[in-house]
Amino acid sequence: MTDPYLKSPVLLLALLLFGVYSFAQKKNAAYNIHIQKTEETFTIDGKGDEATWQKAEPANDFFMVLPMDDRKATQPSEVKMAYDDKHLYLLATFFKTPGNTYVVESLRRDFNFGGNDNFLLFMDPFNNQTTGFSFGANAYGAQWDGTMSNGGSVDLNWDSKWVSEVEHYEDKWVVEMAIPFKSIRYEKGVKEWGINFSRLDISTNEKSSWTPIPRQFPTASLAFTGNLVWDNPPPDQGLNYSLIPYVLGTVGDSSIDGITYDNDFKVGGDVKLGLSSSLNLDLTINPDFSQVDVDRQVANLTRFELFFPERRQFFLENADLFSSFGYETIRPFFSRRIGLGVPIIAGARVSGNLNRNLRLGLMDMQTEKVDETGLPSQNFAVLSLQQKVFSRSNIGLMFVNKESMDYEALADSLKTTYTKFNRNLGLEYNLASSDNKYTGKLFMLKSLGPESTENGFAQGAHLAYSSRQWNWRVQQEYISKNFVSEVGYVPRTNYINFNGSAGYLFLPASETVVSHGPTFSGQYYFDPSMHTTDYLSILGYQVNFLNRSSFNLNLFNEYVELLAPFDPTNTDQEELATGTRHHWNGVYMEYSSKPKSLFTYSFASRLGRYFSSGYRTNLNAQFGYRFQPYVSLGATLSYNNLDLPSPWYTTDFWLVGTEAYITFTNKLFWSNLFQYNEQSRNFSLNSRFQWRYTPASDLFLVFNSNEQLSPLEGKVWSLTLKMTYWFNR
């Protein structure tokens, strides 16, 4: 067989050539906004009546991005900025057409971008066009904040300490912000940052940006930022640390066999220490994540483990340094493997920029042993380095180590269950051209374990292109049979995969349709001897309407040769045999309504054949209604009907989720999520009350209930009161 290191020489050459091509001047380098220091004391009230704002240079004359990017915005916007020794200030004014109403879902923090009239700030303090911070507000004052990575991805799970207020007027709405310098990271002595401002006005279906951005890219794309030019370098942060202690009490009970629940009182917390203005040390002791959003359940009819994103605050700042290596299904590090049903004793993390072009991520976490199962105490260590090359590309190095403590003292029977260590070493190159049209990746991973059967290899590469009308992507992957990543997310091994996609958009001069066009995508899996084991081909057509509703129609052709026994219902019934072959066709349709309406909805349906010459009917619906700005209601319905021969016959099951977000103010929230999964025979309820009594400091009251149906009958519930406080210096 061909050496896996040589599986993608063409893609490697293409990536390097496009890397050289990408070494070009910043696209919107001519767009500058100058910022001056002020000695005035600000009141953050949305009025903007300080004298500083009368003298500040405005960023205005925004460009339209959607529905079309060849003209100026019809809804005027203006942004001004200033700073003092401690804060970065912003005043943004958004004029509106008389008679137009505001559209917001609620006052919930980190709102859905497409469902709210909103303003967003994108900052690139290192001007590297790949990483940064985002802050924003919707038209009723709900806050948005997140870290930025990979040239424009925003992680809203990150939370920081800052203040903002929104004020309404007859012809405009105004947002005023104060962002502490201690809440962000930047390079000392630098007088120029990347920056951009984005506005979404749903009443006119218009998305606009201060700098021009092609319509195929989000306004968060850091490749298209302008420049924030300081009169003097931003102030030195000096001693910068935060203490974030918590205290909580929990009561609960369980009637499920094998699960015990003890009432609990816990104290712990985090420490954030600025090693420099761009490098941060995070420490956590006895961490608790009881207030984190619960996962949304899904019906699983695949043969593989499902992925659920990380939501725990400690793991989120500069998370891309650890979590974006490889592909979605070939991740050497997945932080949710740490503390999965096991208490975390403590952890430390150093992350940020060593200089403008070099980033560092270093993490070490220690978990407790579990006497009931014999699981030993374990240590998780991760090292990540990322060096910028060309204009926006980078080279990354990662090392992941999982080590069991006092392993030799374990009983021999436990040594077959728990490994002594598992290590992954990886190198990757990420391509991003200066105009963002070309992106790509090439990576190699090596796993190391105490046995030779754990010393494997994984590799992947892709190249993608996106223009106003054309988009395409080609990708290749290889994972050996003995590749092991115990701290990663690798649901499948021992395969070679080729996949790709292509699409074209027509842009008609129409008052109803913005764009429409065909799409094609394909996934093709082979074993190491190049024998076909799976494939999925999809031919589709998409239509995007001016009111921001959309319709998609897809025809698919799928083939599976089972590599292991599999129950096609995933409900613990009889399994199909290894080696059996299954082939089917079907159709998938989806429609999403316009977000402007108080009542929103989407429908999706999958109809076609299934395993063992059976049939599968899948119907999905989502509904939403808002009593803006205080209440947002939602419901998700999913129905699967599997019509199969003996011994399965007909199997059908529902997945129902209902949620209610009640936002009394933009600091007082009550969220409720009820889920019923008939496939896993499970009811769950999560109700969380949150009072943000001061910036970044919260009081939580969280109720959780999980009930299992026959044959695993039982119930577990808990009620937690938790208080956190953010001390800053």
TrEMBL record:
GO terms for molecular function: carbohydrate binding; hydrolase activity, hydrolyzing O-glycosyl compounds. InterPro entries: Carb-bd_dom_fam9 (IPR010502), DUF5916 (IPR045670). Keywords: Hydrolase. The keyword Thylakoid does not apply. GO terms for biological process: carbohydrate catabolic process. Residues 44-201 form the Carbohydrate-binding domain. This is Carbohydrate binding family 9 domain-containing protein. It comes from Flagellimonas aequoris.
